[in-house]
Design brief:
By secondary structure, this protein is mostly helical. It has helices at about 1-10, 20-40, 50-65, 70-85, 105-115.
Length: about 120
């Protein structure tokens, strides 16, 4: 991925083509990584605005981690990206009424049942 973006923006001698610079290459890398993260974490495309921004920040941190020369910066950026991805909220699944437990009897209902007639046999 990284090599493809650089080859497309350079001529035969390795010089940058007009309109391309290191900033545009980095932005293209971030956009490509963002699409990968969206495909993995938000395939339906219904994430909230905060979650979309977290995905973008995580993509930026992953690119920083890939291009950093200092191992400390690389590890810090990777961990920050993982932290942001862990904070993404899963889409809420609708609860079915069958899964919910039946309501508990109150003490009054239990006493009424005992005084009305023959109580149930406890084994």
């Amino acid at each position: 991925m990284q090599g493809d973006l650089q080859v497309a923006s350079r001529d035969k001698r390795g010089r940058m083509l007009p309109g391309n610079n290191s900033r545009t290459i980095k932005q293209a890398r971030i956009a490509a990584r963002l699409e990968e993260l969206r495909a993995e974490y938000d395939p339906a495309g219904n994430a909230s605005v905060i979650d979309r921004n977290r995905l973008k920040l995580a993509a930026m941190h992953y690119i920083i981690a890939e291009t950093a020369r200092d191992p400390t910066v690389s590890v810090r950026s990777t961990r920050t990206a993982e932290y942001l991805l862990n904070k993404l909220r899963p889409s809420p699944a609708p609860r079915s009424p069958a899964v919910q437990a039946p309501p508990l009897e109150t003490a009054r209902e239990l006493l009424d049942r005992l005084t009305e007639g023959d109580p149930p046999v406890v084994r």
